[in-house]
Amino acid sequence: MIEISGLVHVYPEGTRALDGVDLHVAPGEALAIVGQNGSGKSTLVRHLNGLLRPTAGTIRIDGRDAAERKVADLAAIVGLAFQDPDQQIFAGRVRAEVAFAPRNFGLRGAVLEAAVDEALAAVGLVEMADTNPYDLGYSRRKLLAIASVIAARTPVVVLDEPTTGQDLRGTSRVRRIVGDLAAQGRTVIAITHDMRFAAETFGRIVVMRDGRVVLDGAPTVVFAESAWPVLASTYLEPPLAARVGARLGVGTTPTEAALVAALARRD
Amino acid sequence: MLELRGVTYRYAGYARLVLHEVNLALRDGEIVGLIGGNDAGKSTICLVASGLAPASVGGELRGEVVIDGTPTTSLPVHALAERVVLAFQNPATQRSGVTATVFEEVALGPMNLGLPVPETIQRTRQALATLHLEHIADRDPTRLSGGQGQLVAIASLLAMRPRHVLLDEPTAQLDPEGSRLVAAALRDVAATGAALLVAEQKTDLLDGLCDRVVVVEEGRIALEGPTPDVLADERLESWGVEPPARVRISRALEGARLPTLHQLGWMP
Q: Which CATH number fits domain B2-227: 3.40.50.300, 3.40.30.10, 3.40.50.1010, 3.30.420.10?
């Protein structure tokens, strides 16, 4: 359980990136955080593994104050795949990069190899295990960053814009990974600008604006017509399926499947 | 006009060809979308069209890249920069690393072109205003959010008032409002007579922006044509490209034997 209360973060130069965030995340929950650029999404998740410390407010993870725990302890609980994979990747081989975190958590031998193989398979990089990460294109480096947190087997996985630069196949892969992680009982928190990905992949969507949470609920709540003014104030638009559904008066249809089903019912 | 004539390319140290006989002409004032799956060759086309490959990154190029009638091979890198600029996929790759504020970062391009200080300042202010970045002008460029960093990278490019512009996934990290601002800025650049090439995964963005769209698959041009035709092509998904939402929804309605969006009275 992650309990964030009144979280404020002010960067050294004075930018107030978080301005009182309250958020509870239950174990095994899959949630997306959306919001305009600079609304505090990345700043928020960097508090979960201790990369940033609160200016005010608290974060409790499994009942314990995160402020009292070392980054190394938090890293064993919360795995974070960075928005920019190049901030994360440092090893000379794909396999070594993925093995780094689980080895640090004490995995050895066949267990370690299995964790690495499983993660490489999940992101589709098995055949590139011996490649230098910098010989991979940007989209594959993003997938490599995700593989590293899968292999770490942390109970909480945070993905910062996992679908950026992914093509259709890559996006479906990320969607499947989120589903698999959730099915394993791991908590998944993803930051995204892709409203369709958010609506189709996550049971809960948190909308941020100016360092605060302004909407929090299921896709049918966050993309309901009554919430559109709040979304518009964050410069976000509901997915096209939701806009079409509202216009045609068939209720809130955050996904294309929901829209088709609602229209079929009407006929 | 920026042209790739029969371009075949491989990166330094690799035997594999990344581009095969690519012919592509970007006419003045035209915005051309470039789509394709990951590793299809989009970023390489941008690098080659900018002249940076092979001039800066090495590799072997056969064929010709011609900018306004001049082959890039006859131009030194600084002269290339006055004719064509490339916005990199990862804004961190592009950031100079030598400036203390966003304002200085955006001013660096015009300064390096040797422009007078008043003009540099004026261009910088204008580029920041175009992308609504005035409020972060004094911030440290290394301490921005991913999306803000991407907007600053594009502002830096606008301030150079380039002849032609290539953008490698310019809105990948942007929110919808940022994407709209960038699209509007690109239309303004095209209106000055520049040729623009926009490599993107977001077909919804290209839908309303581009005059033409080119599909690249395994280093070859697979399809080229007017935007509505290409984005409605049935083969798009097999090339790893997601069709725009309106195309997907229309197909889903058709598949369920429901009336079309148009018949339902829905207009974009």
A: 3.40.50.300
